[in-house]
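WARN retry 2 of 3 for item q-0093 after timeout on previous attempt; input resubmitted unchanged.
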Amino acid sequence: MAKKRNTVTDPLYWYRVFYREIIYPIIRIIHLIYEELYISLYERSTRNMFVTSYRGKTPPQHMAIIMDGNRRFAKKLGLKVTAGHIYGKDKVKDLARWCRELRIPIVTVYAFSTENFRRSKEEVDVLMEQFRVAFREFADDPDTHKYRVRIRAIGNISMLPPEVQESIRYAEERTKDYSDFIFNIAIAYGGREEIIEGIKKIAEDVKEGKMRVEDIDEETVSNNLYTSDLPDPDIIIRTSGEERISNFLLWQNAYSELYFTDRYFPELSKADLLKGMRTFLKRQRRFGK
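OK item q-0093 returned
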């Protein structure tokens, strides 16, 4: 039988405590000081680009973000993986504010995929509670109403627990008349599932004689997706260093610019977002021409 390790005398345990309670906060303070200086320079430069449209180019009208790395962030700090999702929820609020400051009118965040239901019950339960709280917090946030932000959920909402569905309805109802900014939260979302559901709607219309098969085109498909009333994303940002789309907006990202950052999502800073914007404005978008 393996001898149980005594955490009091375990050097690895104390190393983790020392890192989490002392070293990491010091690193964060140094990083925040650096970040403030960095942001002031980057923000000034990027805002100038926005004003001048960077030699005729336009800033993104729709930004999509794959929020990845919550669990690895928690593990790095020696915390339970569920703690990373709590940090991530708070970061979403920062992200929404930064996008408003950069005058990006439409933002779509990938919060929870249909595949994520395969995770442990404990983790899924924590996430569902975070979503239940987050939608209500967004709906009741004074800034949401000050800046007229419309909150929307996209995905197979019927898969979610009733209390999460109720929070979604609450947020969507309270903000349904706003249009200055649109904040979409992809939850219980899968890109393939979205396309399949769209095809089923089109097939039903053909079956009922509402349209002919030869009339089906790209616009027909786009009009039967969750994002039917939105432009396709100009840029998709993914955090955590992974470089894949992971079943996110598969139809809509045909001509999206992709930007990957090594930061875990809870660590994302405004400077990181500005780097993505600067990269976007420098790129040549040809749309196949």
